[in-house]
Design goal:
Helix content is 81%, strand content 0%. By secondary structure, it is mainly α. The chain has one domain (3-256).
Amino acid sequence: MEWYLILAVIGVGFLAGFINTLAGSGSLLSLPMLMFLGLPANVANGTNRIAILLQNVVGVGSFRQQKVLDTRMGLWLAAPAVIGSLVGAQIAIELNEQVMERVIGALLIAMFFLILYKPAQWVKGQAGQVRAKPSMLQFVIFFVIGIYGGFIQAGVGLFLLAGLVLGAGVDLVRANAMKLLIVLIYTPFALAIFFLNDQVDWKIGLILAVGNMLGAFVASRFAVSWGARYVRYILLTVIFASALKLLHVFEWIASLL
């Protein structure tokens, strides 16, 4: 691979890692880059998991060092997500993504207005709602999110944040830390399924991971130092842009010009 392509992949990885750590949907940047390099969509989907895995190692370590990670709660919620990710990764090997993209785009638009409607819940959390052990409903929610995360990584962070903030009562900064831990735990299982089906390019994946890890480190420091209020603005921007992309609004606008 030429040096300028290596730099481009690392640069896209940095942006993806930054966005993934503060919100989600960074894979909407990295997946097109991988496909631009010639990887089939299913191989790009599998290869992207390498960068996600290493990005979250860095992000989790940084959040834990800054003492904002609830490891116990994260491990409890990771269990149903792991089971769901195995189901989702198996589905991803053959299923067409077009219909799901439209459904996810519509859900993100709904989430955007939900965050606008109840901003305090995302910034401050709900201390009385946080439990030492998740409820059965929370297990179901994170199992379903795990299915989606195993299917296609893009956007899963946004749904994990919604589940953690609205379902578990965690504030946005701590939710981001727990989100990374959950994804870190289930990603190796999903990656293994892609690997066993020869849908992983390790060389490109590790190059992309360099950028993702740098982005995760910078974003985790930003989240703690600036606080949940500013992270919420980034989250709103990412959700809106991701929804427009998944609904192919940008393509529609370009066709009119």
